[in-house]
Amino acid sequence: MSSTTPDTLSLETATPPLTTAESGSSELSPSVAPSPSVSAENPSIPSTSPATSPLSADITSEHKTQLSTPVFSSQSFQISPQDRSKVLLALRRRNQREATPFINLIHEHERSANTVELLRKKTITLQLENERLRQELRDVPLNAQGEQADHALRTEVSELEKRLYEAQCELTTALRGKDENSQKILSLNDRIRVKDDELNQKEQKVRNLQVELQSAQDTIVQMKSKIETLEEQSNAQADEYRVLALSCTQFEQRLLKSEDENRQILQQFMKFKEQFADQLNQQNDEFNAKRQEKHHQEIENKVKDLAKRTTESSMESTYFSNVILASEIPNKAKSVIDAHDDEVTCVRFLSNHNFITAGVDRYVKIWDSSSQGSPLSTLSSCNAAVTCVDVDHQESYLVAASYDYSSRIWSLRDHRLKHSLTGHTGKVMAARFISEDSYKVATGSYDRTIKVWDLKQRLCSRVLHCHSSCTDLVTIDSSVLCSGHLDKRIRFWDIRSQKSDLSTSELLLSGKVTSVDASRS
């Protein structure tokens, strides 16, 4: 048993102390060899050969089988001397690291093996002595002295047997302790394998984490590269933006300069137009003066001819002269009002000596004709140029058409906005009241439609499709509507009929119709 256990330890742990234990066991093996003469002569005495336990025998046979099986062949496993020294150094470090927990256990196992061998030697000696005494006892003759000697020998034999029994018990205890130590070694080897597996798993986990860490570091490097690229692009765009801002500033300065130049040119053009208009007015005045003078001369000649023919021609001549002089066309403006900041598009007079103006500046203004100052009221709800204004029969409401595709209605009493008429898809060019109760309004637009609005219900009650852009509207009475269009036509509509959207009649002119009006008498 002492010769097999060290082999098992050297296989499982591969530590230097195991080699020492193995050598010690081999030294003790010859001294515990059994005595064949004693066993053969007395079969009743148990054999004292160094038998091993069943567990140790199984372990020894299994490990000897493993040791006899080569792991690598000499042809498949070749290593250089330099690598051999590295492997040997690694194995020594591993032995030094893994043998530390087993040093005390190995020493204890060696002491137990030595004790077992000593007890085995002592047992063999006692057995030999016991056998010798038995042989002497058989050879001694039976007499009184012999009985006393036999009694003494028997007493000595019983003591020796007792001592032999005690030695066998100690040997059994020692063998049991040795088996327990072997079991501990196996359990520790199992724990070592478990720890090795856990260590391998942790090392694999560490390798996986290292791979993930490397991947994360590569991702970080890529992201840093992308960030640098984006920063470069951002810097380039910032530079482009600064260049564009500088260019925009320069263009704005040039634009302001161009606007100033255009304004100066426009002022010069307006002055030139005023001068040209003054020249034309002066030429017209001269032409009218010459024409009137010529007309007066013709009249005077005719009067003279008539005075020669009749005696009453002088009175008639005076009468006709006064009538003709009273029909002269005015050639000078009575007053001039600077009404709007831009072009004036429409003027409408009221019965109370007030009048309304509308302009491209989006304002509708109400003026007092007797004063030359500021307007009585300014209406500013339109979002584009105002093209047309109209008032109802009672002069209570004002309607205005605008380029913002809508029309608006104000009250002339408090000058507040009452309605907004939206629905056209083009510029609204005309807006008229078409009923005496001021609750119906017609609007004409560039979208080739005329819409009739019911202010009581706040909706569009009818749409007339005129196939051409409408430029102006006028109501002949509460049932007939007249409209002018860019297709050189004037159309008449019967707004009482709800069945047809076609005009009742049309007039074709030689040019585009820009304005229409009807006599109230």
Account of the 3D structure:
- By secondary structure, this protein is of the alpha+beta class.
- The protein has helices spanning 5-13, 16-28, 36-41, 54-68, 81-99, 103-139, 144-309, 313-326, and strands spanning 344-349, 354-359, 364-368, 377-379, 386-391, 397-402, 406-411, 417-422, 428-433, 440-445, 449-454, 459-465, 470-475, 480-485, 489-494, 505-508.
- The strands form four sheets. It has a four-stranded antiparallel sheet, with no helix packed on it.
Provide keyphrases for this structure.
4-stranded antiparallel sheet, alpha+beta, rod-shaped, disordered N terminus, 8 helices, 16 strands, 521 residues
Rg (C-alpha, Å):
69 Å
Q: How would you characterize the largest beta sheet?
A: 4 strands, antiparallel
Q: Strand content of the residues, in percent?
A: 15-25%
How many separate helices? Answer: 8
Poorly predicted spans? 1-76, 312-327
The 3D shape can be described as: rod-shaped
Mean of residue pLDDT values: 77
Strand order of the largest sheet: 1-2-3-4
User: Helix/strand/pairing class, anyone?
Assistant: alpha+beta
Secondary-structure element pattern, one letter each = HHHHHHHHEEEEEEEEEEEEEEEE
Helical proportion? 40-55%
Q: Based on DSSP secondary structure assignment, what is the total number of beta strands?
A: 16
Span between N and C termini? Answer: 150 Å
